[in-house]
Design goal:
Strand order of the largest sheet: 21-18-17-14-13-12-23
Shape: globular
Largest sheet: 7 strands, mixed
Distance between the termini: 70 Å
CATH superfamily of the largest domain: 2-enoyl-CoA Hydratase, Chain A, domain 1
CATH class of the largest domain: Alpha Beta
CATH topology of the largest domain: 2-enoyl-CoA Hydratase, Chain A, domain 1
Number of strands: 23
CATH architecture of the largest domain: Alpha-Beta Complex
Strand content: 15-25%
Number of domains: 3
């Protein structure tokens, strides 16, 4: 069913483009600055209840659940749903009609959002709603009727009450932990239980699983029972706290995510916390970026320079299951709303917060570690570009001085800052430079283009395609090339958007070697933030919220999109991240990879001639590397876990599995401690150091900083790094990818020097 949108007075010019990043990408055109939407001053309570007296009535939705029905503002909710659908049809990049197929996607997306583990609804519920609404949600929406959202929500509450009562019953039963039973905690892709009997059996296995987790964590049985009971009663409490706006947002995101995973509807309250809940999810005090996934608060990224980043004890995909203030007891945060988890982690500067986390890649949720952090202000200087000068030891014992520029994000002064770092590295006579973008999730597009321009003479950098097929080529027109020497760009699965544009362009120009994981993130779409109040017209009271809308795609100058496929490195190094569920391709309904015509650009031919020899040498080193051997061992462990995500409910078997990992980790630490080859000496170089013109001898060495940090850690967090947590080896001081990248760069520089020497001789 096609929807026609009446343009408001502001029209499409009201769109405000977001900055480039893993969650949103694009530029803010100067001509739109005066048309940006003003911040809404409507309070949350007023927004949820205010309406036009002449058109709106409050009608309760019938339900036999224990919660009183939500007072649904029928006309208001219907108008918002209708408006969102119209905009999606006409202005989303795909311009897909909101038809029966999208209606079915929306229904499934909504029910999955309410019941992500497929443990609350029954299959009969799903079948009933498919029959009732599967081909009808588009028709409900076109006539401005959002009532299906509340009917389905009330059924969810009814089932949730039944499940919580079942948990109370099951916690009184006795369980045997010696058999061959197994349980799969992640049921996101599993069907709903077909009936009450199957639901009870699933929940019995789940409760047995959670009781075993407590035994493996050495909890007292009574404490575990109380914690499990409290968890599900809290889950019910948080669900009951959902108001009309929360239900509508979940419902409309079922529609928005049917178009692509980066398009979102936000209520006015959610829009007010956009920096926490949508783009950055920054947690005041520790500097982490969270997202809610499968009932867990999962770390999406670490803000450079924040306490979480500096601790070296947290990483992307760690799942937070408990939060404690100071030396107090842990509060269980499984199935807790993300904003409530944020509130628990926030706190005054200088205070202690303890996190209980399940490490990334760990399918056994009884494996957890405690991380102690001291809340602090996130120092902006730590998020800026910075560098290292590394005295890299070669196999023959000689030393090669190499520069490494670490760029955490593309901010407004990226280009002048990186320029200063490059100038200093050149003065230090480095043989080449590594641009490390492994943790760069994106940022400002103009800075990405200009940074590329520092490394090429002039030319196109990226193509941008709109939904109407119009393609714009964004160029670097500054003929200045600041650095012409050997260059390697180090990337990973967390490199997204702007960082992918830089890496892709330098690869297309044959200007730099790209090294790293099997691919980058694959975020090649542009989002724009649309305040819906600009579109509702007269007769609508209150703030209808915002829509984050995908409107464009990025393409490399060679023609291929960065979407989904990302950038494939010239030299790929073993990485555990290659086997985790990371990247755009893992997200449902992500836009496809496709190709447009290439544009004309220079081929510098600086990498292709040397790639076969560099690959040969690198592969030989990787095969001989003990650290890469450990990475490969961990990959095999992870592959087995992912091949069978079910876990044994046999206590002794699980204890043995944890003990085996602990033994392996201890053996690795002993082997590393007895190595005779000294580590490379690295000097930290900040923009402040350059400003003060500090000589190399006065720069802080990485080794000295690590030693000082280790000394500080002696008197605190003594129990946080036990070997008995059963996690895969994860020594933050060991970085085999960077070590091998330095080897590749030195080889590359040597081959270029040999070529130049031959050219000078006229051979």
């Amino acid at each position: 069913m096609s929807l026609k949108l009446r343009r408001s007075a502001i029209g499409i010019l009201a769109l405000t483009l977001l900055t480039l990043g893993a969650c949103g990408a694009g530029q803010k055109p100067p001509e739109l600055a005066q048309n940006q939407a003003k911040p809404s001053t409507t309070t949350a309570s007023a927004t949820a209840t205010s309406s036009s007296a002449s058109t709106t009535t409050a009608t309760p939705v019938k339900s036999d659940a224990s919660k009183p029905p939500i007072d649904q503002n029928i006309v208001r909710d219907g108008k918002i749903a209708q408006l969102v659908a119209r905009i999606l049809e006409q202005y989303h990049y795909n311009q897909t009609p909101f038809d029966n197929e999208m209606s079915q996607r929306m229904l499934k997306g909504y029910m999955d959002a309410l019941d992500y583990s497929h443990l609350i609804f029954l299959q009969t519920d799903y079948d009933e709603f498919v029959a009732q609404y599967g081909n009808e949600l588009d028709k409900y929406t076109v006539r401005a009727d959002a009532s299906p959202a509340f009917v389905i929500y009330q059924r969810f509450l009814q089932r949730l009450d039944q499940r919580v009562a079942l948990v109370d019953k099951l916690l009184k039963e006795k369980y045997d932990f010696t058999g061959t039973d197994r349980f799969q905690p992640n049921r996101e892709k599993s069907p709903f239980p077909k009936d009450d009997a199957e639901a009870e059996q699933l929940w019995r296995s789940r409760i047995k699983f959670e009781l075993l987790q407590g035994r493996l964590a050495n909890e007292k049985p009574d404490e575990t029972i109380k914690k499990i009971s409290r968890r599900y009663h809290n889950m019910r409490k948080y669900t009951l706290e959902m108001d009309e706006n929360d239900v509508l947002m979940t419902y409309l995101n079922g529609l928005a995510h049917s178009y692509d995973p980066h398009t979102d509807y936000m209520t006015p309250e959610d829009a007010e916390n956009f920096n926490i809940n949508a783009i950055k999810l920054s947690l005041t005090g520790i500097g982490a970026v969270l997202r809610s996934e499968e009932g867990y608060a999962k770390i999406a990224e670490l803000v450079p320079g924040g306490p979480a980043d500096l601790s070296k004890k947290l990483k992307a995909n760690d799942r937070i299951i408990g939060v404690a203030q100071g030396d107090g007891d842990f509060v269980d945060v499984v199935d807790m709303k993300l904003n409530k988890v944020v509130d628990l982690i926030r706190g005054k500067r200088g205070t202690k917060v303890r996190l209980l986390v399940i490490p990334a890649g760990q399918t056994d949720s009884s494996v957890r570690k405690e991380v102690v952090l001291i809340r602090d202000e996130i120092k902006l200087t730590k998020q800026l570009a910075h560098a290292q000068i590394i005295e890299h030891r070669l196999p023959n014992g000689s030393i090669a001085r190499v520069g490494v520029i670490n760029l955490p994000q593309f901010y407004d002064k990226t280009v002048p800052d990186v320029s200063r770092l490059i100038e200093r590295l050149k003065k230090e006579n480095v043989v080449g430079i590594v641009l490390d973008l492994r943790r760069n999730g994106g940022g400002l597009l103009d800075q990405a283009i200009d940074l590329t321009g520092l490394l090429i003479r002039t030319g196109p950098v990226v193509q941008v395609r709109a939904s109407n097929g119009q393609i714009t080529t964004l160029r670097d027109d500054d003929s200045r090339q600041l650095y012409t020497g050997p260059l390697v760009v180090l990337v990973g699965h967390l490199s997204a958007s702007a960082s992918e544009i830089v890496a892709g362009a330098l690869q297309d120009y044959n200007r730099a070697l790209i090294v790293g994981d099997s691919s980058t993130h694959g975020k090649g779409t542009v989002q724009t933030l649309l305040p819906l109040e600009r579109w509702v017209g007269f007769g609508f009271s209150g703030d209808p919220g915002n829509l984050k809308l995908t409107v464009q795609k990025f393409y490399r100058i060679a023609g291929g999109s960065t979407q989904k496929m990302g950038v494939i490195p010239d030299i790929q190094l073993p990485s555990l991240l290659d086997y985790m569920e990371l990247g755009e391709r893992t997200l449902p309904n992500c836009l496809p990879y496709d190709v447009v015509n290439k544009v004309s650009y220079d081929n510098y031919n600086l990498t292709a001639p040397y790639l076969p020899e560099l690959l040969k040498r690198s592969n030989a080193r990787v095969e001989q590397s003990r650290d890469f051997a450990y990475v490969k061992q961990d990959i095999e462990v992870l592959k087995k876990r992912l091949a069978d995500k079910s876990l044994s409910l046999n206590e002794e078997l699980r204890k043995k599995e944890k003990a085996d990992i602990d033994t392996q980790n201890k053996a690795r630490k002993q082997e590393r401690a007895h190595r005779t080859t000294p580590r490379d000496k690295a000097y930290e170089l900040t923009l402040s150091d350059i400003e003060k013109n500090k000589p190399l001898a006065e720069l802080t060495t990485t080794a000295a900083a690590a030693a000082a940090e280790k000394e500080k850690e002696k008197d605190k967090d003594k129990d946080a790094d036990k070997d008995s947590d059963g996690t895969l080896d994860d020594d933050p001081t060991i970085d085999p990818q960077l070590d091998e990248t330095l080897n590749i760069l030195v080889d590359y520089a040597s081959l270029l020097t040999e070529k130049n020497a031959l050219a000078n001789k006229g051979e």
